[in-house]
Amino acid sequence: MADADPDDDWQPDIAALQRHDDAEWMRVEQTYCGRLLAYAHRRVGDLQGAEDVVQESLLGAVRGIGDFDRKYSFEQYLFGICRNRTIDHLRRRKARTVAVQEDEGNSGPMLDHLAHESETPSAIVRGIELSGRALELLGEVLKEWIDETIEQGEYRRLAVIEALFAGGWRNRDAWRFFGFGDETAVAGIKFRALKRIRQLAARRESGSDLIPLLAVAEEGGRLLDLDVSQLWRELHLSCPPREVLEKRLKDGLEGQQLEFVDFHLVEMRCRWCAANRDDLKRGDQQEIHALIERLSDTRRAL
Q: 37 is in which domain, residue-wise?
């Protein structure tokens, strides 16, 4: 395993991090540095640039830990910073490339793909403004539905809903991909999922501006007029735990669970899970240890 600490369920003590406890921050660096580097390297392309992104991300985490929002996990906080630092790095690199091309009179193709960023921060609400609490409630009930579905072993049902909600697939796309008899099978899965999600929402606080919209969605309307895929990605709602990804690498999964993990990685192209997988596959740890030493020295100098 790539990380220095074998306990993948470990969560840092936020209060200790906010006190700038050196041992706690060192464990953060040892636990997350490898997977952050894998994430950045996949998107940046060169190791030096990826290391720069990781250093900026972890130092940004140190500076911002005082405002940590506990409704998110620390890993979500850390990867959110890394995602934004990666975007900044790619934009700076594109700007330098454009400047060189202009100086050389080169009118060839720009690195347009570097500017494209499907995960850039944007308004989640398209047609209807929901309160922050309503969005938080939606994330909670979606996660509860996902956990319930996994507990029932219904990984194919989860894959279908992820395709529709997170991937933006049409019913006919899911019908053909999953090999159902017709579109009505997909529509039925969606209908039952929405009905259950509405029940889960109703069991919580009133959510007065959310539950009526869930009812409209259940009757066939567009899901809440929200970009649910953005919320799904930001909260990593269906991402399998790291130990499950490790089992996949060791051929330790089977049946619907194996199919779902592969679907999540290949079809949904989850960058977080791909980073964890790549980190687990990494054999040589020398570059990680050297990076951690540099990070620790820089952090202590802050």
A: 14-122+281-300
